[in-house]
Each structure stands twice: as structure tokens, then as C-alpha cells.
Amino acid sequence: MNNQQRLRERAHMRIVHLRSPKIVPGTRKRLANMRQKSKFSVLWSSKRQDWKTPEKIFNLLNSEFHFDFDPCPVEVKEDGLIADWKGSRCFVNPPFRNVASWIKKGYEESLKGKLVVFLVAARTDTRWFHTYCLPYAEDIRFVPRRLRFSESKNSAPFPSMIVIFDGRMKT
């Protein structure tokens, strides 16, 4: 057996070992139950939806973009998904439960010539990321460490990213 044959055989063995195991009936249901009961359930959901943006992150972004409107402040006065956004430079830290709706609204507002900057969980496997962020965002910045949102004892259980839709460049 020459070296080439040995390499092929080793590569074949690696491929065999990388195959995923068969899913046993009922596994998906058990996993769903584990997510609900687990002490790590915070990784899949959040009871709070109004986490305040870390002041350091906001100040850093504000010094670059000079925001004049926040469509979803902590103290909600009107529904930012329905109302027209008044400012021309918007900062958005949306509630976790309906990020897709906020991203879509932000993209639509950017088509009106506005700058819209999002702070969202880095969920690159979602439909909203591939429908709006990847093709239309002017810039996507990944935050190098997990953020600690204001009033929280711990860092977020997910990575974050800054998504920038800049409609000013298109009008």
C-alpha cells in the first residue's frame, strides 16, 4: 500500500466518524422539554424584553452616528413598529421576541433615506438575517465579547452584532 492509498483510507475513516447519529424517536420532544426546564433555559429565551443598552456601547455608537431617535426606548410611549420614525439617525435595541419585525421596519425606514443602527443578538442562522441584514446592510459589526446589558448581573448568553442600514447613501 503506497502513501496515497493510506491517505485516502484515513480520509475515508474520518468521514465515517463524522457522520451524525440517527435521531431516536421522541428525541426532539425531550430536547424541547429540557430547554423549558433547564437551568440554562435563559439561553433559549428571556423573561425580560426591555434590557437597556450598555451605556459604553451606546456612547461609542452615538459619537460616530449622532442619533436623534430611538423607536423602542425602555419607557414605551408609542409602538415603534407602527409609527413612522421621526429622526433621520435612529438607534434600535429591539425586544428579543420580535427582532425580525424590527429589522424589517428598520430596513423600510432606511429606504426613506434614514440611517438605522441596530444592536441585536448575532443570529446569523435566522431568516431575518439572510433576508434583510446580509443583502442590504451597509455594515455588520460583530461585538468581540458578550455584552452585559444595564441592570443585569451577568453577561448576555449570546453574542451581539451591530447592523447598519444607511439609506442616506441611496437617496
What overall geometry do the principal axes of the alpha carbons give? Answer: globular
What is the gyration radius calculated from CA atoms? 21 Å
- H/I helix tally: 5
* Straight-line N-to-C gap: 67 Å
Q: What is the strand content? A: 5-15%
Low-confidence stretches: 11-24, 38-45
- Report the order of strands and helices: HHHEHEHEE
Integer average pLDDT: 75
* Classification by helices and strands: alpha+beta
Q: How much helix is in the residues?
A: 25-40%
Give the number of DSSP strands. Answer: 4
Biggest sheet: strand arrangement: 1-2-4-3
The main sheet comes to:
4 strands, mixed
Write a concise keyword list for the protein shown above.
single chain; 171 residues; alpha+beta; four-stranded mixed beta sheet; 4 strands; 35% helix; 13% strand; globular
Short description:
The protein is an alpha+beta fold. 35% of the residues lie in helices and 13% in strands. The chain has a four-stranded mixed beta sheet, covered by helices on one side.
